[in-house]
Amino acid sequence: MRYFSVESLKGDEAGHWTGSYRARHRWHISGVECPRFGVWAGMDAFPSVDLSEVAEPALSEWKGPMSLPEYKRLTALVRPFVPPELPLYAGCTFGPMVGTAQGKFGPVTCWPSWEVVLREDAVELLKVEGLKGVIAVRMELKSRRSTMPALYELEARPLAKLHPDCIGEFKTPACDICGRPESFDLPPKRWLLRSSVPEGLDVFGVEGACLHVVSERFIETVQRLGPSDVHYQELPVG
Q: I want to staple 180 with a disulfide (CB 3.0 to 4.6 A). Which of 33, 42, 69, 175 is the partner?
């Protein structure tokens, strides 16, 4: 099986579609101020995680970084609702995206670069074809167009890893004070660590990187619905 990352168009590239949206996830954990690394926040998004049973206003308020004790308090509240295999760090967002949308959307949209959105018919086709690992959460978007099809955010759970040889030595170590994970700049030439690739899944994410990885079967399926304003960059496995 071949794998590809879903990439947004470059700034000067003309697309086929006019669709755009402005939205945020319903809940989030704000950035944290670490005494060692200063202020930091990750970008993991888990729209399938429902925090409606957590009675904590701070999770729905968008504000500046919080103290380390407050960060630990909030993560302790949220952890029981997050699958154990998923990371839980500052900057994580949860629940559906809520906002507004306009224009016409293609089958797959990648904008901004760390978010991937599917049109409703793409979600239905992927399900009919039996693709695995497709977690698509309906976005709560208001639009002036009454005929706009529903849009779904594609969740990419960070189950795979990049090969250590493509990351190199330029890494920031993990922090035993705030729990910040080891981090690195995304290398321009990259490939997946074979032993980490989840067998049989057509969609997954990469640990430490904001990447949506899809199989060639995923691409072949959604292309039946016409063009999308995205690029697919192959990620070799080694």
A: 175
